[in-house]
Known about the structure:
With 133 residues, chain B is of the alpha+beta class. Helices cover 25% and strands 26% of the residues of chain B. Chain C has 105 residues and is mostly beta strands. Chain C has one domain: Roll (SH3 type barrels), CATH 2.30.30.240. In chain C, strand 6 (84-85) and strand 7 form a beta hairpin. Strand 1 of chain B pairs antiparallel with strand 3 (23-35) of chain C.
Amino acid sequence: MNFKKVFEVALGIVTSVGGFLEAGSIATAVQAGAIFKFQLLWPILLGTIVLIFLVEMAGRLAAVSHHPLPSAVRERFGFNFYAIVLVASTIVDLLVLASEIGGACMGLKMMSGAPLAALALPVALLAWLLLWNGTFGTIEYGVSLLGLITIVFIVAAIKFGPQYSQAAGGLLPTLPTHDKPHYWFIAVSILGATISPYLFNFYSSGAVEDEWDESDLVPNRITAGLGMGFGGFTSMAVLVCAACALYPRGIDFTRYEQLPLIITPALGMWGFWILCCALFIACFGAALELALDMAYVYAQTFGWAWGENKKPADAARFSMVFTIILLIAGIIITCGVDPLKLTLLSMAATAVILPLVVLPFLVLMNDRKFMKEHTNGRFANFVVFFSIVMASIIALVAIPLEIYGGS
Amino acid sequence: MADGGDEMHLVRDVLDKQLVDHAGHDPMGMADGIVIEVRDVNQPPRVIAIESGFPVLARRVSPKLEPIVRWLGRRLGVRRGIVYRIPWSRVRSLDVEVELDVDADRSPAKAWEHWLCRHVTRYIPGSGNFLES
Amino acid sequence: MKRRRFHLELLLGAKVIDREGKFAGHIEEVRAERLDGETVVKDYLLGRGALAQRLSITGLSTQAISLLGGRNNVVTHRVPWDKMDLSDPRRPRLTCRAEEMEAVG
């Protein structure tokens, strides 16, 4: 590898780490830590491992077949099947996007005291301005580099001085002793938050846009492994903070306003300000990626011109998709939906539809017509297949229990 | 396309693939449908065209959906609900994409793109619109 | 016979019966070739799967199982163009018996 490649890989890792946390991973990890201490670290670990596989696969698909994921799935399975995927992921992505806008607004609200309803549309507008005027590089690298501020969670977790041996015990799945339905609901929400379909969709589109070829396969593997791997650490750190700060005091995480409590005991008042910034940046960055991802998905499904490096006039329908989507998400939050409840629900919903998105992807990755000699290994197939199917089944059981179970 | 008796799988190699124009590899929609003509009993059916457009997709999902989409297209669509049909003779090559011997900018495939440029994006700064200013 | 047109995408997954009304398979693929400057249909490939093919998922379910190392080939039989009666494209019929179809793959 030459210097340029090394630099690209390093940049890729840094942006993955900076872009890892978002409303869903923060909210689910804090809930888990507050109620179950370290016991739910394992879904973060499992989710991160599956995500590493999926991101690597998305990059490999783009490098070998020069197809982004949506058009490859449509081509392989036909439009009728893809229409189902499209409808399901549009609904879920819209909910997730609204959650991210909500999370970003909460970050601003805690700093300024302004009401959520007044912040939602301006935040959506800001996101839209960046997408309309920015290039892929400014969005991917700029926002993700700022996202490195989320390392504050790792700093705080270390300062808390948790019992590391006990925390390590949480990396292996164990059965809950209390709040059983809630335990599984949070577990699948964590999986849904970690294995975000928009992440690998987005990644494959970026790889096609950057014209990857087979020489990018090794850098792709390193970027996916280290980037998502370290990213998983930031998520675990959030859980550890919550386990140290909220669990002993018996505080249940029900409102975003409680979020600073997981950091201020370790870092004091400046921790509060950093946390608010981190929440805003993490959610805002995810909102940008999600809006862009939905534009990619629609353009690639219907064969329109697409690309964040194109001027909006050269990809007018593509640009219209992110415009409309951001507007709808902004309106949802303006209407007064509780961002935290929306986040938790949309993460569990993501877990439900995962098989719909991931199983066709797995079939593609084993198809020699697309992948030539770079098809998946059996281990990757095994891990991804079983994790996804399990997560979906548990989610289908846990969501009704959570909604009707009297919480 | 070269006449070499080369065999092609119409579903695998054509249907649901990206259509691009010849000059700039400009995206022109997807191969949503393929039209075949049955002739004499002694002659094999002939592939005559590729179709692209929402009514074609709607028909695939459900025959009941097609008239609704066509009606919407007539009322609201820039293309007036008409399906874009590309004669098979315009197909130049089949690879990752289906390359057509057509100029994308003059074809109905980009009607929406041009309509949006004229009516929407030109009024928004930073869109890089050729009609801007 | 009059010239008629039909849509290939609607033929996909259609149930094919043979001369005697027996189920022969679902249409999975249509192969074409260049002949005298025209592109003409050469043959139809049939598969025996039911629901998965009807939804044109082309065997997603069978493949999900065979993912862990199995091969995936849903096509079972080949029908030359002149053995397929498409006078009603919604109800394709073989002009021969199902047993006479050539097995593939």
